[in-house]
Amino acid sequence: MRIFVFGSSITSCYWNGAATYYRGIYKNLAALGHEITFAEPDIYGRQQNRDRHEVNYADVIVYRTPGDIDGLLAQAAEAGLVVKHSGVGADDELLEARVLECRSARTQVAFWDVDAPATLARVEADPGDPFRRLIPQYDFIFTYGGGAPVVQHYSALGARNCHPVYNALEAETHHPVPADPALACDLLFVGNRLPDREKRVEEFFLRAAELAPEMSFILGGEGWSSKSLPPNVRYIGHVATSRHNSLNCSARMVLNVNRESMARVGFSPPTRVFEAAGAAACLITDYWAGIETFFAPGKEVLVAASAAEVVVYLRGIGPREAHSIAGAMRERALKEHTYALRAAQVHAILQASSAGAQGDTIAFPALLTQSAQPQPVQTRRVPETPERLA
Prior knowledge:
Layout: E1 2-6, H1 19-31, E2 35-41, E3 58-63, H2 69-76, E4 81-85, H3 92-98, E5 108-113, H4 116-125, E6 140-143, H5 147-156, E7 163-164, E8 185-190, H6 195-211, E9 217-220, E10 233-237, H7 244-250, E11 251-256, H8 260-265, H9 271-278, E12 283-286, E13 302-304, H10 307-316, H11 319-336, H12 339-357, E14 380-381, H13 386-389
């Protein structure tokens, strides 16, 4: 199937936490034989801060918004599936409405929400929100987390269906590497400074640093340079995905702190959880509903309800136990939480929909193991038009 995607960016993780998710999902959908076109706007300096200059499993189009949207929609209408991701970052409201113009007997349209708690909170608080009336018109609603609560909320808003497709591990990308002494620390946290994350980072990370002044902490991510930090916290700024393995493998323990909305809804493990699992890092996470459906607390992951509990783990878990927990988490992730499995889930949903349209019945396989290798395709930009050059 040809799949045309509107998303924030698959080439750059700069101010773009969804990049790892996009890469894992679309790389593995391509491996199952789908032809992927990914359209991303040239905004927020992402093209100047790329960490993937070539994407060999998708045709990446970098476009100027909104001027190029008409042409892109004409291309999208030729695909079997058009995907509009949440949080593209430019003209989202316009795209949410106009991708539905692509629907036809041969083209279905999906809204793929990478921040369902925020989307639902916004829509449910405002009956006049333009997206609210569009939800029932989409053929599919996919989300990257949220579990039953998100499914129930989308269903109440008239969605035809809602399928959580969780973050996962891409083992070829995130794996153990030798530790870097320059990045050694007792606890690492990497995450951009966002309004609904900052308070929880203060509670779980910065407060832990204050409670354990004898230990060393590293903070990575955009936006923290103006933040007052304890003296034992080293800020290293933006962290490209190519450095994640080295960081995760150099820290004694790695911390996950969910955004407030994600923690409240639950069932929303962020990419850093699976990146740490892939690197065989010992992970401490703040508590959120559903964590036990992904990893076993105490055996595969350490769960903390406060900074004090984070410090208890830092002081009480020795190297042997930490290594055992990290190894068990990696083994579980490789068995149950890979992007190959997530892509197979999406593939089965699309197959079932196609068969249903023809009056057939299809089973949902746990994993489709036969795959076609995608051919390399170079990234390209929308060409300049004579009108633009004038």
